[in-house]
């Protein structure tokens, strides 16, 4: 079985990659620092980082963000900083006076194999009124995907992976890899 390195320090992300990709690959977590620029698009962050990581190929990296409609897409590309400073409670406070709570998660996977590729996945949903669930990571306790009653933090990894931004980006990656 071929090895695929997942470059991340986030155990939660790695668990999701492992759940979906380990049927096809020996999935290894590599916790290596890489340059993360502040850019307007997730794709640009991924593009820049990939340049520095080629020696670890075949590999994937992942840049993701939560985009809240009423907050004009905030925290978006600042999701990581906002999680460290305001956290889920801060987002709930910003939305205190709103009933319309549409949001989306985006994930861009950068892949280096024979070629360099990007795969994007989006999941639409809503910010809940309070935190629900203890599974997952990051903003999972306050994000309820469209058509579901539970937040991501109330779902098992396999269930989240079927509908999530990261799961969808992985579908794109697997689709590409199966044709090689
Ligand atoms: P990054 O891709 O690691 O920069 O993620 C940005 C921020 O979004 C971090 O604080 C992550 O915890 C959070 N995040 C990324 N993906 C997810 C997810 O699937 N669920 C919940 N939070 C996420």
Total beta-strand segments: 6
CATH class: Alpha Beta
Give the overall pLDDT as a whole number: 96
CA radius of gyration: 16 Å
Helical stretch count? 6
Please give the largest β-sheet: 6 strands, mixed
Number of domains: 1
Task: Provide a brief overview of the structure.
This protein has helices at residues 11-21, 42-50, 79-85, 87-94, 157-163, 165-178; strands at 3-7, 26-30, 59-68, 102-112, 116-127, 143-145.
Walk me through this protein's architecture:
This protein has helices at 11-21, 42-50, 79-85, 87-94, 157-163, 165-178, and strands at residues 3-7, 26-30, 59-68, 102-112, 116-127, 143-145. With 180 residues, the chain is an alpha/beta fold. It has a single domain, classed as Alpha-Beta Complex (Maf protein). It has a 6-stranded mixed sheet. Strand 1, helix 1 and strand 2 form a beta-alpha-beta unit. The longest helix is centred in the C-terminal third of the chain and has 14 residues, at 165-178. The chain is globular. 35% of the residues are buried. The mean pLDDT is 96. Bound molecules: inosinic acid. Inosinic acid is lined by residues 10, 62-66, 79-80, 83, 105, 136-140, 152, 164, 166.
